[in-house]
Amino acid sequence: MKDKALVLFAAALAALLLVPGLASAGDFTVGPQIGTLGVGVNAGWQYSDYLKFRGNTNYLPYSRSGEIEGVNYKVNLDYFTIGALADVHPFAGNFRLSGGLYYADLSVKGKAGLGQKSITIGDTTYQPGELGDGEFKGSVEWKTLAPYAGLGYGSGSGNEPGLGFSFDLGALYIGKAKVKLEAPASAYTEAAKHNYNLQADIDKEKDEVKSYTDKLQFWPVLSLGVIYRF
Length: 230
Description:
By secondary structure, the protein is of the alpha+beta class. The chain contains three helices and eleven strands. It is 18% helix and 55% strand. The model has no long low-confidence stretch (mean pLDDT 84).
């Protein structure tokens, strides 16, 4: 999906640049940006002094591993976005009010291997060996069309080619996430030997994670970029 989205973004940009008579000097901007959506590319077209259109794509990877209370874990965050924005310049200057829509593909995936210490899942504290030595897996995923609203600043507006910079501050509404928690089959077998209801504990743990992620329905957007107008 990410590769297809990047191809569509590149094709749309190329189409704008190749349409005869559509552009004049200073109509287009393009450049790199970095921020809370990761590293990306931003491209824009100036329709008038008061209205501009932009598209951007961003990628934010993150990985961490370690040990917490005897449990070895690894967490990977993967965030890909592609957005289409309309900018209103109320004063025909650099200040802008922006709105638009993003495809937001955000996932957090983790796995944990049991160590030599006890672990609490739901309402039960399991001792070493009571769940075997399998690996637990979990994921939190948002895959949605996310509305965006914000404000920003883009220097170098007008019709003269040259370098400038851009700044955006706003938020994406990413909605509620899907939460999955899975235990290996061997863990259920071992838990049953000790009369534990592992599935009930996993469901309770999942509900606790879901109650937390349900509060995270907005993703803050802060980005800085360099643009070239041509």
